[in-house]
Design brief:
This protein is mainly α and about 475 residues long. The chain has helices spanning about 5-20, 25-35, 35-45, 50-60, 60-80, 80-90, 100-105, 110-125, 140-145, 150-155, 165-170, 175-195, 200-210, 215-225, 235-240, 245-265, 270-285, 295-305, 305-315, 350-355, 365-370, 375-380, 385-395, 405, 410-420, 430-440, 445-460; strands at about 5, 45, 325-330, 330-335. It has a two-stranded parallel sheet with strand order 1-2. Helix 7 runs antiparallel to helix 8, helix 14 packs across helix 16 (about 245-265) and helix 23 (about 385-395) packs across helix 27 (about 445-460). The protein is elongated.
Length: about 475
């Protein structure tokens, strides 16, 4: 079939419409029925190999483009049904299809007409993921450099979009893993800020459904837990802690645990004890991450007042040293398994998380105490052995040299701050600001700390473990 000059067809349509008094929709239908115009339109090809619908999109005539799509579909449905898919699946010389042209148009025009076109293409099963000759898909153009949320939401609403689609589309333009992670985190941040988190909710819901497979769960886990924003070193999970309700947070943890078990299955640990240790190590790889301020997930949850989230997070990790058995000269030898080599308790998952310090030198315990957040403090100490509680309250100082016991006694805290400033450990201004925060600690929080210390010392003395000083071992 010989091609027809698209320029000639376009000129004929524009000249005739200029003399027409009615709407473009009625004019275009009459033009299409006149003589051989239907054949001419179907065979018309431009200089770049584009058809008439693609030309109108390239010219950003979105209203006319929608009319061309709808009128040709309704007309050819009864006369030449095979032409509908031929016309909509047409590609230009660079391999760009109708979705590529629509995605380019969306950069300037995203409204009712383009959204209706997107939904029509989805209903007709016209692929939005096909690559052009430059290796770029229409979805990639919709996602980068700025996500077109109305059109993306149309894909979400029809359940066509998955995290695997998104990951592949972004990878087309981000060949290196750090750049891919940055783009993915940027898309997620935009979703939370500009799209009410609809994309995040959609992909999470997909991943925890019974019919989801391990590859989908792995891709969703990468989005929420692995892709790090290069600007602040945070993951999507960091941001979601402050924004999710209980149901979505539970789904996130469920996804994390499912993917952890699938990761363990690939590692094939030799025995139950090793599997237990590896499970904790895999969880720690994601839960111990800290941002550029040195703050981890507990700091984010505390700042948002998400006490239930904090309890669920700490319940995932064990308060015991991890170890695995390795063969040394044919004999099994127990070897420690570190999860954070910079921690005071490098092999203990829970303590490694709880003892993290931010860049100001404060642990999560110091931050909670200075905020007067007694429920958070009680949650962090829940089920913790008395000797650990005592050691943290009396022997874990921040950068200014203050323990929780010092925060509960302002006069003692003042003395320590003066000595720290004189020794040059902190500046005078920092000492004054810290003292202001110490004085702001509520009396109830001070009473909780001193009461807990007294309780443990009394218990140690009564059971004969206090030695001469009355303190626990």
């Amino acid at each position: 079939m010989m091609s027809v000059s698209l320029a000639a067809v376009d000129e004929d349509i524009r000249n005739r419409y200029a003399r027409h008094m009615g709407k473009f929709s009625s004019f275009f239908l009459n033009w299409l029925k006149f003589e051989d115009n239907s054949d001419r339109l179907y065979r018309a090809v431009g200089e770049d190999g584009e058809n008439y619908l693609q030309l109108r999109l390239k010219q950003h005539d979105v209203m006319e483009s929608l009319i061309v799509m709808e009128v040709t579909h309704d007309h050819w449905k009864t006369t030449h049904p095979e032409r509908i898919y031929g016309f909509l699946n047409h590609e230009d010389r660079n391999g760009n299809g109708i979705w590529h042209y629509l995605a380019d148009t969306l950069r300037q025009n995203e409204g009712r007409e383009t959204l209706k076109m997107a939904r029509t293409l989805l209903a007709l099963d016209i692929s939005f993921a096909k690559l052009n000759r430059q290796g770029i898909s229409p979805l990639g153009k919709m996602l980068l450099p700025t996500p077109k949320w109305q059109s993306l939401n149309a894909l979400i609403a029809t359940k066509h979009l998955s995290i695997e689609n998104i990951e592949r589309a972004v990878a087309e333009q981000a060949k290196e893993k750090p750049i891919l992670a940055h783009f993915m985190s940027q898309i997620f941040s935009s979703d939370l800020a500009d799209n009410r988190g609809l994309l995040s909710q959609h992909v999470l819901k997909q991943s925890v459904q019974s019919q989801s497979d391990s590859s989908l769960r792995a891709a969703t886990c990468r989005l929420f837990f692995d892709y790090v924003d290069v600007r602040d070193n945070t993951t999507a999970f960091f941001k979601l802690i402050a924004n999710t309700n209980h149901g979505m947070f539970d789904d996130l943890l469920r996804l994390l645990l499912l993917n952890t078990e699938e990761t363990l299955a690939q590692m094939a640990p030799p025995d139950v004890a090793t599997k237990k240790a590896y499970r904790q190590a895999v969880l720690c790889r994601r839960l111990l991450l800290r941002d550029k301020q040195g703050e981890g997930i507990l700091f984010k949850g505390l700042a948002a007042g998400k006490h239930a989230h904090l309890r669920k997070l700490t319940s995932l990790l064990m308060n015991e040293d991890l170890a695995i058995r390795k063969l040394v000269r044919g004999e099994p030898v127990r070897q420690p398994l570190p999860v954070d080599r910079n921690s005071p308790a490098p092999c203990n998952p829970l303590l490694s998380l709880l003892l993290q310090r931010n860049n100001a030198g404060d642990t999560i315990f110091h931050v909670a105490a200075l905020k007067g957040d007694q429920p958070a403090l009680e949650g962090f100490f829940y089920n913790m052995p008395s000797n650990d509680v005592y050691a943290i309250m009396t022997g874990l100082p921040n950068r200014a040299g203050l323990t929780l016991a010092d925060l509960a006694q302002p006069e003692r805290a003042k003395q320590r701050l003066v000595r720290a400033a004189q020794a040059g450990h902190i500046s005078g201004a920092d000492a004054q600001e810290t003292m202001r925060r110490v004085l702001a600690v509520p009396p109830e929080t001070r009473a909780y700390i001193t009461g807990k210390i007294t309780e443990i010392e009394t218990l140690a003395a009564d059971t004969g473990h206090g030695g001469t000083g009355g303190a626990p071992l």
